[in-house]
Amino acid sequence: MSGSTVRRNAQKIIDGKYSGPDPLLEEFKTMIYERLEELQLPPGKIQLSPELDPIDCTNDDFDFIEKLGEGSFGEVHKVKHIPTGNLMAIKYQTIVFDPHSDEAREYWTRQKIYDRLIREITAFRKAFVSKFTNFIPSYYGMLILEKSVAFCIEVLDLTAENLYHCHKNKKRDAIITNDNNESLHFEEKPLAIVAISILKAMLHLRNLKAMHRDIKPRNILLNFNGDVKLCDLGLVVFLEDSAAISIQSGSKLYLAPEILRGDFVTEYRVKSDVWSLGITLLEMARFRYPFNTDVLEKDLLFQIIAKPVPILNENDGYNEEMTHFINQCLIKDPKQRPHITELEMLELATKFSDINFNRNLMKDFISNNVER
Ligand SMILES: Nc1ncnc2c1ncn2[C@@H]1O[C@H](COP(=O)(O)OP(=O)(O)O)[C@@H](O)[C@H]1O
Ligand SMILES: [Mg+2]
């Protein structure tokens, strides 16, 4: 279908005068095929590691094990891939909407959803083939189903949000039982490992000339082996794509003040991920989101933009390296805030650079805090 036909049909949809196949959906499917051809993995094939040949795959190849989470446009399931016996996560995302739903009526909403899916596939696939990384879940491939697409991804066990809730409860119980007055905060070393692992994931994306734009505790996954990974690449932008870069998105709670104000300078745009990392770590450190959320959204956003930054201090119970790392991320002025390559130079990052050490420490920490 040509671009002008698509646009004409789109206008008819907006005017309620169209009943044929959804032109946007057709365009989206064509784009997926083109993009995946470019990335050398057609829909309906999965590749379990960069060294292995892709194999054919259908939705019938999976045994459902459990539901892992709720995505914005579908569920995430843990499944077993019967032919190989591998466990995986499948992220289903609706692409055909009920004609009476808001998504179906709103041309721009659907376009945003399709856009997001194309970016997510591209980012996952590029991260997977470019250079093996321990900090972004492996991406195996995708299927186009009747009403949805399914992304097959490495499965992990819990989110950083789950982890800090478990840890908080455990600490609270210990404090009550032992009647001590230890301050209630996330243990230092595992928090440092989360910080450094997510920094490594950000550096990997940067090598692909991309930024994440949705860093928050729910988009950080961990497993019982002690791995920490940054998931949900739905809002990734590639930096050469200068049109996409100005679009504001991601959970507002973690967006940098300059993005919320809308007056960012493109040169510093990449630093907004650094702010989101800072808020994420501060939330984990204190076991709660650092701003008051019991207010209207506009007041919450005003707090982020105009109130002094909630920095870590000596009462939080952390050493100088951790305090410095988090507070550097939370420098309000993006010009002064460090780049991710500068964060890598900080003492916390050099101290926790041994991946095996980190994994072992995190493995023990998770097994002591989370019930299987
Ligand atoms: N690979 C995975 N392994 C385990 N759980 C996952 C995985 N991917 C996603 N989840 C769970 O599903 C939730 C939603 O997935 P996500 O990719 O963040 O979707 P959305 O873009 O809609 O936020 C996550 O917060 C997490 O709880
Ligand atoms: Mg998410």
Automatic annotation (TrEMBL):
Pfam families: Pkinase (PF00069). Its EC number is 2.7.12.2. SMART domains: S_TKc. Keywords: ATP-binding, Kinase, Nucleotide-binding, Transferase. GO terms for biological process: stress-activated MAPK cascade. One of its GO terms (molecular function) is ATP binding. The keyword Transport does not apply. ATP binds at K91. It is an enzyme of class 2 (transferase). Residues 62-352 form the Protein kinase domain. It comes from the Eukaryota. Coiled coil: none annotated. Belongs to the protein kinase superfamily. STE Ser/Thr protein kinase family. MAP kinase kinase subfamily. This is mitogen-activated protein kinase kinase. It comes from Acrobeloides nanus. The lineage of its organism: Eukaryota, Metazoa, Ecdysozoa, Nematoda, Chromadorea.
